[in-house]
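Title: Request for sanity check on Multiple sugar transport system permease protein prediction

Description:
We are preparing a figure and want to confirm that the structure record we downloaded matches what your pipeline produces today. Could someone re-run it with the sequence below and paste the raw C-alpha coordinates into this thread? We only need the C-alpha coordinate string, no images.
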Amino acid sequence: MPSGGSPSSVRPAVVGPGAEEAVAEAPARRPARSSPRRSRRGSRAERLAPFVLVAPAVLIIVALRLWPLALGVNFSFTGDGDRNGTSVGLDNYLTLFGDPLFRTALRNVGLLVLLLPVAVAIPGLLATFIYLRVPGHRIYRGVYFFPAVLSPVIVGAIFNLLLAYDGPVNAVLGVVGLGPVDWLGDPDVAIFAVVGVHVWATFGMALVVFLAGFSTLDRSLLDAARVDGASLPQTVWHVIVPGLTRTIQFVFVTTMIGMLTSMFGLLYVMTNGGPEASTYLPEYYIWVQQGQFNQPALASAASTALFLIMLVVGLAQVAVLRRAGREG
Protein backbone atom coordinates (compact mmCIF):
# COMPACT_ATOMS: atom_id res chain seq x y z
CA MET A 1 0.00 0.00 0.00
CA PRO A 2 1.43 3.40 -0.93
CA SER A 3 2.15 5.75 1.87
CA GLY A 4 -0.44 8.38 2.54
CA GLY A 5 -3.23 6.46 0.80
CA SER A 6 -6.41 5.54 2.59
CA PRO A 7 -7.70 1.99 2.54
CA SER A 8 -11.02 3.08 1.12
CA SER A 9 -9.39 4.66 -1.93
CA VAL A 10 -7.70 1.42 -2.94
CA ARG A 11 -9.66 -0.92 -5.20
CA PRO A 12 -8.68 -4.57 -5.64
CA ALA A 13 -6.91 -5.15 -8.92
CA VAL A 14 -7.88 -8.81 -9.06
CA VAL A 15 -11.42 -10.02 -8.82
CA GLY A 16 -11.65 -13.32 -7.12
CA PRO A 17 -13.85 -16.19 -8.16
CA GLY A 18 -17.51 -15.75 -7.21
CA ALA A 19 -17.33 -11.97 -7.21
CA GLU A 20 -19.45 -11.68 -10.37
CA GLU A 21 -22.18 -13.82 -8.81
CA ALA A 22 -22.13 -11.61 -5.73
CA VAL A 23 -22.50 -8.49 -7.81
CA ALA A 24 -25.36 -10.06 -9.77
CA GLU A 25 -27.12 -11.06 -6.59
CA ALA A 26 -26.82 -7.56 -5.14
CA PRO A 27 -30.24 -5.80 -5.10
CA ALA A 28 -30.83 -3.35 -7.93
CA ARG A 29 -30.97 0.29 -6.95
CA ARG A 30 -34.62 1.49 -6.91
CA PRO A 31 -35.66 4.90 -8.28
CA ALA A 32 -36.26 7.56 -5.71
CA ARG A 33 -39.91 7.85 -4.73
CA SER A 34 -41.71 11.14 -4.17
CA SER A 35 -42.98 11.55 -0.70
CA PRO A 36 -46.68 10.76 -0.10
CA ARG A 37 -47.18 14.28 1.22
CA ARG A 38 -45.90 15.82 -2.03
CA SER A 39 -48.08 13.56 -4.19
CA ARG A 40 -51.14 14.44 -2.13
CA ARG A 41 -50.40 18.14 -2.60
CA GLY A 42 -50.08 17.66 -6.36
CA SER A 43 -53.35 15.75 -6.67
CA ARG A 44 -55.15 18.35 -4.55
CA ALA A 45 -53.85 21.15 -6.79
CA GLU A 46 -55.00 19.29 -9.88
CA ARG A 47 -58.48 18.90 -8.41
CA LEU A 48 -58.71 22.58 -7.46
CA ALA A 49 -57.33 23.97 -10.74
CA PRO A 50 -60.63 23.74 -12.71
CA PHE A 51 -62.53 25.52 -9.93
CA VAL A 52 -59.94 28.30 -9.79
CA LEU A 53 -60.19 28.81 -13.56
CA VAL A 54 -64.00 28.84 -13.55
CA ALA A 55 -64.34 31.04 -10.45
CA PRO A 56 -64.08 34.45 -12.24
CA ALA A 57 -66.81 33.55 -14.73
CA VAL A 58 -69.03 32.20 -11.96
CA LEU A 59 -68.55 35.38 -9.92
CA ILE A 60 -69.46 37.55 -12.92
CA ILE A 61 -72.60 35.50 -13.60
CA VAL A 62 -73.64 35.64 -9.95
CA ALA A 63 -72.99 39.38 -9.65
CA LEU A 64 -74.51 40.49 -12.96
CA ARG A 65 -77.20 37.85 -13.55
CA LEU A 66 -78.30 35.79 -10.59
CA TRP A 67 -78.14 38.52 -7.94
CA PRO A 68 -80.22 41.04 -9.96
CA LEU A 69 -82.65 38.22 -10.78
CA ALA A 70 -83.03 37.43 -7.08
CA LEU A 71 -83.57 41.13 -6.30
CA GLY A 72 -86.21 41.36 -9.02
CA VAL A 73 -88.08 38.32 -7.72
CA ASN A 74 -87.96 39.72 -4.18
CA PHE A 75 -89.17 43.13 -5.44
CA SER A 76 -92.16 41.48 -7.12
CA PHE A 77 -93.58 40.69 -3.65
CA THR A 78 -93.66 44.36 -2.65
CA GLY A 79 -96.27 47.00 -3.41
CA ASP A 80 -96.51 50.01 -5.69
CA GLY A 81 -97.66 53.55 -4.96
CA ASP A 82 -98.70 54.04 -1.36
CA ARG A 83 -97.54 50.52 -0.49
CA ASN A 84 -94.10 51.03 -1.99
CA GLY A 85 -91.53 48.87 -0.19
CA THR A 86 -94.07 46.97 1.92
CA SER A 87 -94.61 43.25 1.50
CA VAL A 88 -97.87 42.39 -0.29
CA GLY A 89 -97.39 38.65 -0.76
CA LEU A 90 -98.92 37.35 -3.98
CA ASP A 91 -101.10 40.41 -4.65
CA ASN A 92 -99.05 41.46 -7.67
CA TYR A 93 -99.35 38.01 -9.24
CA LEU A 94 -103.10 37.91 -8.60
CA THR A 95 -103.40 41.34 -10.23
CA LEU A 96 -101.21 40.17 -13.09
CA PHE A 97 -103.23 37.12 -14.04
CA GLY A 98 -106.46 39.03 -13.57
CA ASP A 99 -105.41 41.65 -16.12
CA PRO A 100 -106.92 41.02 -19.59
CA LEU A 101 -103.85 42.57 -21.23
CA PHE A 102 -101.52 40.07 -19.60
CA ARG A 103 -103.83 37.19 -20.49
CA THR A 104 -103.69 38.41 -24.10
CA ALA A 105 -99.89 38.43 -23.86
CA LEU A 106 -99.93 34.84 -22.59
CA ARG A 107 -102.23 33.80 -25.42
CA ASN A 108 -99.78 35.32 -27.88
CA VAL A 109 -96.96 33.37 -26.22
CA GLY A 110 -98.90 30.20 -26.99
CA LEU A 111 -99.19 31.35 -30.60
CA LEU A 112 -95.42 31.87 -30.74
CA VAL A 113 -94.87 28.33 -29.49
CA LEU A 114 -97.08 27.01 -32.29
CA LEU A 115 -95.23 29.10 -34.89
CA LEU A 116 -91.80 28.15 -33.54
CA PRO A 117 -91.30 25.07 -35.78
CA VAL A 118 -91.82 27.27 -38.84
CA ALA A 119 -89.34 29.85 -37.51
CA VAL A 120 -86.74 27.07 -37.07
CA ALA A 121 -87.52 25.18 -40.29
CA ILE A 122 -86.92 28.22 -42.52
CA PRO A 123 -83.24 28.79 -41.60
CA GLY A 124 -82.72 25.03 -41.37
CA LEU A 125 -83.88 24.43 -44.95
CA LEU A 126 -81.96 27.43 -46.27
CA ALA A 127 -78.80 26.22 -44.51
CA THR A 128 -79.36 22.79 -46.09
CA PHE A 129 -79.53 24.32 -49.57
CA ILE A 130 -76.38 26.34 -48.92
CA TYR A 131 -74.56 23.27 -47.56
CA LEU A 132 -75.55 21.26 -50.64
CA ARG A 133 -74.01 24.08 -52.72
CA VAL A 134 -76.95 25.25 -54.75
CA PRO A 135 -75.97 27.81 -57.42
CA GLY A 136 -75.18 31.13 -55.76
CA HIS A 137 -74.81 29.66 -52.27
CA ARG A 138 -71.97 32.04 -51.36
CA ILE A 139 -74.13 35.07 -52.18
CA TYR A 140 -77.14 33.67 -50.33
CA ARG A 141 -75.09 33.24 -47.16
CA GLY A 142 -74.44 36.98 -46.96
CA VAL A 143 -77.89 38.02 -48.17
CA TYR A 144 -79.70 35.89 -45.58
CA PHE A 145 -77.52 37.13 -42.72
CA PHE A 146 -77.71 40.82 -43.62
CA PRO A 147 -81.09 41.55 -41.89
CA ALA A 148 -79.63 40.30 -38.59
CA VAL A 149 -77.37 43.36 -38.41
CA LEU A 150 -80.22 45.84 -38.90
CA SER A 151 -81.79 47.63 -35.96
CA PRO A 152 -85.34 46.47 -35.10
CA VAL A 153 -86.44 50.11 -35.36
CA ILE A 154 -85.16 50.29 -38.95
CA VAL A 155 -86.77 46.96 -39.82
CA GLY A 156 -90.07 48.07 -38.30
CA ALA A 157 -90.02 51.36 -40.20
CA ILE A 158 -89.31 49.59 -43.49
CA PHE A 159 -92.14 47.11 -43.06
CA ASN A 160 -94.53 49.83 -41.92
CA LEU A 161 -94.14 51.23 -45.42
CA LEU A 162 -94.32 47.85 -47.14
CA LEU A 163 -97.36 46.59 -45.20
CA ALA A 164 -99.34 49.81 -45.20
CA TYR A 165 -102.91 49.50 -46.45
CA ASP A 166 -101.93 51.42 -49.61
CA GLY A 167 -98.40 50.01 -49.66
CA PRO A 168 -96.58 47.94 -52.26
CA VAL A 169 -97.52 44.55 -50.79
CA ASN A 170 -101.24 45.24 -51.14
CA ALA A 171 -100.59 46.71 -54.58
CA VAL A 172 -99.08 43.39 -55.69
CA LEU A 173 -101.98 41.48 -54.13
CA GLY A 174 -104.40 43.73 -56.00
CA VAL A 175 -102.71 42.90 -59.29
CA VAL A 176 -103.26 39.16 -58.76
CA GLY A 177 -106.83 39.76 -57.57
CA LEU A 178 -106.45 38.93 -53.88
CA GLY A 179 -107.49 42.35 -52.65
CA PRO A 180 -105.86 44.50 -49.94
CA VAL A 181 -105.17 43.17 -46.44
CA ASP A 182 -105.00 45.40 -43.38
CA TRP A 183 -101.79 43.83 -42.16
CA LEU A 184 -101.24 46.06 -39.14
CA GLY A 185 -104.81 47.19 -38.45
CA ASP A 186 -106.65 43.86 -38.29
CA PRO A 187 -106.46 42.29 -34.78
CA ASP A 188 -106.54 38.80 -36.32
CA VAL A 189 -103.67 39.49 -38.72
CA ALA A 190 -101.35 41.96 -36.97
CA ILE A 191 -99.61 39.48 -34.65
CA PHE A 192 -98.82 37.18 -37.59
CA ALA A 193 -97.41 40.12 -39.54
CA VAL A 194 -95.14 41.18 -36.68
CA VAL A 195 -93.95 37.62 -36.03
CA GLY A 196 -93.26 37.16 -39.75
CA VAL A 197 -91.16 40.32 -39.82
CA HIS A 198 -89.27 39.18 -36.72
CA VAL A 199 -88.50 35.81 -38.31
CA TRP A 200 -87.28 37.51 -41.47
CA ALA A 201 -85.05 39.85 -39.49
CA THR A 202 -83.47 37.26 -37.20
CA PHE A 203 -83.25 33.91 -38.98
CA GLY A 204 -79.79 34.83 -40.32
CA MET A 205 -78.23 34.06 -36.94
CA ALA A 206 -79.95 30.66 -36.79
CA LEU A 207 -78.72 30.06 -40.33
CA VAL A 208 -75.12 30.58 -39.19
CA VAL A 209 -75.64 28.15 -36.29
CA PHE A 210 -77.04 25.52 -38.66
CA LEU A 211 -74.08 25.95 -41.02
CA ALA A 212 -71.74 25.45 -38.07
CA GLY A 213 -73.66 22.28 -37.21
CA PHE A 214 -73.30 21.02 -40.78
CA SER A 215 -69.52 21.17 -40.39
CA THR A 216 -69.80 18.29 -37.88
CA LEU A 217 -72.03 16.19 -40.15
CA ASP A 218 -70.48 13.09 -41.69
CA ARG A 219 -70.35 13.77 -45.43
CA SER A 220 -70.18 10.06 -46.22
CA LEU A 221 -73.75 9.65 -44.95
CA LEU A 222 -74.99 12.13 -47.53
CA ASP A 223 -73.01 10.39 -50.24
CA ALA A 224 -74.48 7.04 -49.20
CA ALA A 225 -78.00 8.48 -49.31
CA ARG A 226 -77.34 9.89 -52.77
CA VAL A 227 -76.02 6.52 -54.00
CA ASP A 228 -79.11 4.77 -52.59
CA GLY A 229 -81.32 7.15 -54.56
CA ALA A 230 -82.81 8.99 -51.58
CA SER A 231 -84.78 12.11 -52.44
CA LEU A 232 -84.07 15.46 -50.81
CA PRO A 233 -86.92 15.15 -48.25
CA GLN A 234 -85.75 11.65 -47.35
CA THR A 235 -82.16 12.83 -46.99
CA VAL A 236 -83.24 15.71 -44.76
CA TRP A 237 -85.47 13.59 -42.54
CA HIS A 238 -83.31 10.45 -42.20
CA VAL A 239 -79.77 11.84 -42.41
CA ILE A 240 -79.58 15.57 -41.70
CA VAL A 241 -82.13 15.87 -38.87
CA PRO A 242 -80.68 12.96 -36.79
CA GLY A 243 -77.16 14.28 -37.38
CA LEU A 244 -78.05 17.80 -36.22
CA THR A 245 -80.15 16.94 -33.19
CA ARG A 246 -78.12 19.03 -30.75
CA THR A 247 -77.95 21.96 -33.15
CA ILE A 248 -81.72 21.85 -33.64
CA GLN A 249 -82.26 21.81 -29.89
CA PHE A 250 -80.03 24.86 -29.49
CA VAL A 251 -81.78 26.77 -32.30
CA PHE A 252 -85.22 25.93 -30.91
CA VAL A 253 -84.38 27.28 -27.46
CA THR A 254 -82.56 30.41 -28.65
CA THR A 255 -85.25 31.23 -31.21
CA MET A 256 -87.96 30.95 -28.58
CA ILE A 257 -86.01 33.17 -26.18
CA GLY A 258 -85.55 35.70 -28.98
CA MET A 259 -89.27 35.73 -29.73
CA LEU A 260 -90.12 36.36 -26.09
CA THR A 261 -87.44 38.95 -25.32
CA SER A 262 -86.39 40.65 -28.58
CA MET A 263 -89.61 41.80 -30.24
CA PHE A 264 -90.18 44.98 -28.27
CA GLY A 265 -88.62 47.22 -30.93
CA LEU A 266 -90.85 45.82 -33.69
CA LEU A 267 -93.96 45.98 -31.52
CA TYR A 268 -93.28 49.56 -30.50
CA VAL A 269 -92.62 50.77 -34.06
CA MET A 270 -95.13 48.68 -36.01
CA THR A 271 -98.24 48.33 -33.82
CA ASN A 272 -97.56 49.92 -30.41
CA GLY A 273 -99.31 46.91 -28.88
CA GLY A 274 -102.43 47.31 -31.04
CA PRO A 275 -104.77 47.03 -32.66
CA GLU A 276 -107.02 46.38 -29.65
CA ALA A 277 -103.96 45.11 -27.70
CA SER A 278 -103.83 42.08 -30.01
CA THR A 279 -100.03 42.20 -30.34
CA TYR A 280 -99.20 42.41 -26.65
CA LEU A 281 -96.36 40.18 -25.49
CA PRO A 282 -95.02 39.89 -21.91
CA GLU A 283 -92.02 42.12 -22.58
CA TYR A 284 -94.24 44.85 -24.01
CA TYR A 285 -96.59 44.50 -21.03
CA ILE A 286 -93.59 44.92 -18.70
CA TRP A 287 -92.58 48.14 -20.44
CA VAL A 288 -96.13 49.53 -20.26
CA GLN A 289 -96.42 48.85 -16.53
CA GLN A 290 -93.00 50.29 -15.76
CA GLY A 291 -92.71 53.11 -18.28
CA GLN A 292 -96.30 54.35 -18.59
CA PHE A 293 -98.10 53.38 -15.38
CA ASN A 294 -95.10 53.60 -13.01
CA GLN A 295 -95.76 50.23 -11.39
CA PRO A 296 -92.29 48.68 -11.03
CA ALA A 297 -93.36 45.96 -8.60
CA LEU A 298 -96.08 44.73 -10.97
CA ALA A 299 -93.55 44.91 -13.82
CA SER A 300 -91.16 42.80 -11.72
CA ALA A 301 -93.90 40.23 -11.20
CA ALA A 302 -94.46 40.13 -14.97
CA SER A 303 -90.70 39.74 -15.51
CA THR A 304 -90.61 36.82 -13.09
CA ALA A 305 -93.56 35.22 -14.85
CA LEU A 306 -91.80 35.68 -18.21
CA PHE A 307 -88.66 34.04 -16.84
CA LEU A 308 -90.65 31.04 -15.61
CA ILE A 309 -92.45 30.79 -18.96
CA MET A 310 -89.14 30.73 -20.85
CA LEU A 311 -87.71 28.16 -18.43
CA VAL A 312 -90.71 25.81 -18.72
CA VAL A 313 -91.01 26.17 -22.51
CA GLY A 314 -87.28 25.70 -23.02
CA LEU A 315 -87.11 22.56 -20.86
CA ALA A 316 -90.21 21.14 -22.56
CA GLN A 317 -88.72 21.75 -26.00
CA VAL A 318 -85.45 20.07 -25.10
CA ALA A 319 -87.30 17.06 -23.62
CA VAL A 320 -89.50 16.66 -26.70
CA LEU A 321 -86.57 16.97 -29.10
CA ARG A 322 -84.47 14.47 -27.14
CA ARG A 323 -87.31 11.97 -27.15
CA ALA A 324 -87.83 12.47 -30.88
CA GLY A 325 -84.09 11.99 -31.46
CA ARG A 326 -84.05 8.71 -29.49
CA GLU A 327 -87.10 7.41 -31.33
CA GLY A 328 -85.58 8.42 -34.65
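Thanks, this matches our download. The CA atoms of residues 54 and 139 lie 40 Å apart.
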